[in-house]
Amino acid sequence: MSTQGRQLLQTILPSNPLLSMKRIILSLCLSLLVFANTQAQSLTHSKDWNTLLGLFEKEDWQAANKLSLTILNKTPKKQRDGADAAKVRYMYIYSEAGLMNIKKATKTEALKKVSGMTGRMVTLPGHPVSLKDDFNSIRKSDHETDSLFVTATNKAATSIFGFEYIILDNKWTKDDLKANAGKIFRISGTLRSIKVEGNMFPRFRILIDHGTAVEQQ
């Protein structure tokens, strides 16, 4: 196969976090299967991909982190800015957030491991567009009027892994957001910056620019 995972939470409760997260996991898995049928070359052997998907489903962040980094390191240099590597790169960052959340990595350790990803392309799993403050959904940022926003969590939506701000090249208006509500989009762009926020509940704060949003059929 080819390429293609209680204080703070109380302030932004989702309308249906479990359902939303199931849709994200399903979208990620389906996207990877689609890429397997459309790409001539693979970053990994099918055994690696099957293992990686299983690790994300089980939320085994330590093993998923190690395997996703292995996949990136095996990627030929000329493909490291390609679409496939961008998906694996985000999976690596997401699994590092998981390690930080379960106290298997300190904030300093986690940031050191992902800081080298800045300036590279990342691709998020497919997210539904929402007009509400749902987790794992694409919505308008309250803080940056020209950007979109995703609150990335674990599967059960009990832990926040990251606040992700995306500045699209073709920015969405409020009308665009309303027109796309309920549709699933996959966002890609350049990882411009990544920081760690929070003490009791550490998570990444990510800025992605030159973003593109492609609807998933």
List keywords for this structure.
217 residues, alpha+beta, 23% strand, disordered N terminus
How would you characterize the overall build of this protein?
With 217 residues, the protein is of the alpha+beta class. The protein has one domain. The chain has six helices and seven strands. Helix 3 packs antiparallel against helix 4. It starts with 16 loop residues before the first helix and ends with a strand.
Instruction: Give the distance, in angstroms, between the N- and C-terminal Cα atoms.
Output: 21 Å
What's the helix-strand series? HHHHHEEEEEHEE
Strand content: 15-25%
Number of domains: 1
In DSSP terms, counting alpha (H) and pi (I) runs of 4 or more, how many helices?
6
Helix/strand structural class: alpha+beta
General shape = globular
Spans of 5+ residues with little confidence (pLDDT < 50)? 1-14, 32-41
Number of strands: 7
Largest sheet: 7 strands, mixed
The rounded Rg comes to 16 Å
Q: Oligomer, anyone?
A: single chain
Overall pLDDT score: 83
Into which percent range does the helicity of residues fall?
Answer: 25-40%
